[in-house]
Input
Amino acid sequence: MIKQVDIRAVEKDLMKTPKALVIKFQKWVDDIEKYGLEEVRKVRGWHDHTLKGDRAGQRAIYLNKRWRAVYVIAGGEVKIVKVIEVHPHEY
Output
């Protein structure tokens, strides 16, 4: 089940995220607005991938080796990306 997106929680996550990664995250957002989600997902540098288990239905991108942005896609033909969280990956 996909949890409800709380924009304040995402903003709080970004405040705890290193500034260089926030800039990289904004680049990803800008690229989606400019080229569309399908094209940006093809860029290998983002390592865009589906998640499994209790996160099934969600996707993630790498901001660096440790940090991830988790998002969901909603809508029919128009792809709406909702960022769920930005966090360090637990290994």
